[in-house]
Every structure is written in structure tokens, then in C-alpha cells.
Input
Amino acid sequence: MKALTWKGVNEVEVQTVPDPKILNSGDAVVKVLRSTTCGSDLHLLGGYIPFMQSGDVLGHEFLGEVVEVGPGVTKHKVGDRVVVCSFVACGRCWYCKNELYSLCDNGNPNPALTEELWGANPGGCYGYSHAMGGFSGSHAEYIRVPYADVGAFKVPPGVSDERAVFASDAAPTGWMGADLAGTKAGDVVAVWGAGAVGQMAARAAILLGAERVIVIDRFDYRLDQAEKVIGAEVINYETTDVDAELRERTGGRGPDVCIEAVGMEAHSPGLQHVYDQAKQQLRLQTDRPTAVRQAIYSCRKGGSVFVLGVFAGLVDKFPLGALMNKGLTVRGAQMHGHRYIPMLLDRMANGEIVTEHFATHVMPLDDGPRGYDLFKNKKDGNLRSVFVPAG
Amino acid sequence: MGMVTGVVDTAKQVVKRRITQRGLLGAERPQDPARWRIVTIDLPPQEVLPGGKAPGPLADWQDAIELRAVPAPGGRGTELGARLRDPHTDRAPEGLDGETPVQKLRSALRRAKQVLETGEVLRADEPSTTEPTVTNAPLRSAIKDSGGEGRL
Output
């Protein structure tokens, strides 16, 4: 079959790879109908997560049709149209039973890599390096889905492929950020990053009753989407003093909830970015935490900060003093999508959540290298490139 | 050619050690091969060691290991521990990840937990699409040992 593979730093290629097959009784094989790029892929592309090997298939956010099931699969049958959670979770360990699916004990066949890096191993993730299990990704004609009864969800007939594909990762990730940050009626919520995850976090905050939701980014075409489609207020950080603006809009308090949806390759105007970039390139820090710093600094006293962006290791100049002295609650997580996806599909069906506008560039898998070039370099108003492997 | 191979092998060992080293943020800790290795399984003790019988791959060790099972606090299931009677035993079963008895014991414990909780051991994708290269040799080596390494 055809698949889009990582070949080296900033190098991807469409190549022929072996077809997936059933290896465990709970597996399904899914024919991929839509598979989207994600901002976290850029960390793999750029070599910031050093657990990729030439030939690894990229992609973790996808929707498809079940074409084969293992003998242990009871909820799905051949022909089902399913969206698959990007994280691989067993559904049977303590973490899964407590709806902390991305922390699954049994979803990562390579536990030592992340145990040594982080002290414990999270679950697996499709197409997201050997540290996250080494599972083949979804930028392919077919994909193996382990624990299919747990991680695959039937898509309601009224929800289009273009909308439902984002229930795989962007929508549940954003919802989780707003939910686990404790967003409640009357809150002012600030979201750093107007990509698909940031927009979904903003939409979730609105649906959870936030009084005002403010999205921060530097690209006007992304901020336009956040304002016109999602219904949030916006700030362009290249033309506005974000902290001063947030204070003005919140009566001098700062946002009650700050959600960071940027990750380890954050940008900022001025010397801070030069400093972080230099330290990252010299491997004196693995991640650039610019947006996290600003979220902690801007958050109101006693407020809540949620780190949704992907980080790999160590950062410099972390504002621990602000965190402690302002009495902040800081949380983070990879996405526990399984607990949100059925609810999100229902909301997609009734129109409360729309996502088609994320798919600014839809193309066949053969155009994968061009899709990542558009996505990485923000060309032609690209928010997400979505691949149609059968197209 | 021999010297080139030697340099590559040395580099592989250094990088592999960096990937799998213990104590990433502090001094490297000496390993005690005789200490208990413990996993928590989300099942009651009578289902983890029914009638004192070792579960899954741990049964193949027979009396080369000691086992113990106690309820985990807070209703988190059972803490299942295993320890090598002889850290240098040559009675480790075949088919487990790793090379040393400690690595094989970690692998057996992890697999036992998976078998008890999910019914089987999750397999990595195969055939792999990875292309072996000189630069990814250390990572390939670390992945091969991953089931038997780590902090367990």
C-alpha cells in the first residue's frame, strides 16, 4: 500500500510499505478515508523528538472504514465508518477505567524509552515515534487499530467525513483542555494558539459556559476563523501587548483559565524567541515554552493553566515563582479522547461543533510532501492539510 | 573497515546508553539485580495469583523467582512483585525481551500484567516499515530492549 513516511529531518516521502494485518484479537484494520496533519507532527518532522526512524509512517488523526476485525472485536463490523482516537488504550487498566486513557498501562509496546525520559510511560499513539509505541500512522491507505472496541467510534450518518475526522484528536484535545482546566460559567478563558486544537479549546470553553473567550495567535487568517466560526475574541500577539490587553479585558485580574495550545516550537516577538531558539538548537533545552510562560504570567491569582501543546523534555526560565506565589493550578495531559469522542460526535451531528473550516487543503496522499510544506510554512492560508488516501 | 565498525559500535553504545540510561536528571544509579520488581494490576489478589499459581509468562520461571501479591491501597488492585532468587540465573525462559535475567524478568512482569488485564500481550506493528540505517541503529537497539528495560 501507499504511505507517507518520515525519511529524515524535514523530509517526507510517499512510498510503498507492507499492508497492515491483524496481530492481536482486538485489532481491526481500517481503510483510511481522511487523515489530517497536526501541529504536533511538526515536532517529529523537525527532529525535536528523536525517536523517529526512516520509513516510519506519519499521521495520528483519522477516520476510515473497517475492512477486517480480529476475533475479539465485538462492537465493530466490516463496513463501519469509524473515527479512531489518536491514542492507543486498552480500556482495562486502572488508568483507562478512570478515564485517563492517554496514560494507559498497556498501550505502548516500548515502555522503557518514556519511563527513562519521564519516569513512567504513557499509552501509545499512532504515527508518533517509537517512544509512543512505534505504531504505524494513518497517512496510509490502511492502518491497524489495536483495542478497536475501545478506540474506534462509529460516526453518526449525518456527520461528514470532513467534520468527523477532527473528532479523532483536535476536538477531544481542545475539549479536554477546557474541561480539565475547570472552565465554568462566567469564566474568562484565554487560549494561546489558533490552530485546530486551540480553536476547539475555545469552542469547548464557550459551550461550557465561559463568559468571554479570547484566542491569541500571530496569523490573521487563523484568528479570523477563531472569531468568525468559533465565536471567540482574538488578539494578534505581533501587534498587541498580550498581557496588557488581557488585563484590560479582564478588569485588571487576568483570565480565570489559560489554555496553552502551542507546544514546544512556540514563537514570540523579540529577544525571548532568539534566546529560546538558540538554547533549543544547542540542545541546552529541548522545548521552547514561550506560550506557557506567558499563560502563567497572565493568569489571574488562583487561576488555572492547562498545557495542551506537546512538550518533550526540559525547558529553561520556567516561571515557578509566579506559579507558586499566585497560587495557580497547572495541569497538562496528552488527550484522553475516548472519554469525549461520543459526546463530540453528537455535538457535531447537531451542529454545535463544526470543523470543516480546518481542512483548508484537501488532497490525495501522493501530495503528502506538498501538504506538509503548506502546513509547516503556513503557506496559502493553510490551517490543516487533509489527505484522502483513496483519492 | 574493522576500525569503522568499531567506531560505529562505540557510538551506538553511547547513544543507546543516553536513550536508556537511568537517572536522567541525576547521578546514574547502580542497579540491584536482586530487588523486587513490582507492577500494579487492576484485579483482586485472588485473580492475580489464583491458588498461588503464577500468571502468564511468570509461570515459566518456576522456582527461579519469588512472587508476592498484596492488595494495592485505594482500591487500585493488586501489587504483584517478582524477585530473582539468583541474579545470575541461567533459567530465564526463552522468548522474553532483553538479554540479562533482570531484563527478562521485567519483560515477564509486564507481559503478565497485560495478559491478566487484557487477555493478551499487545504486539508492535509488523512487518515494520522502518529502514535500518547507521544513524538509527542505537534507537533500534534501544527499542529491541525496551520491554526489558525501564524503571521497573
Observations:
- Chain B touches chain A through 40 residues (CB under 8 Å).
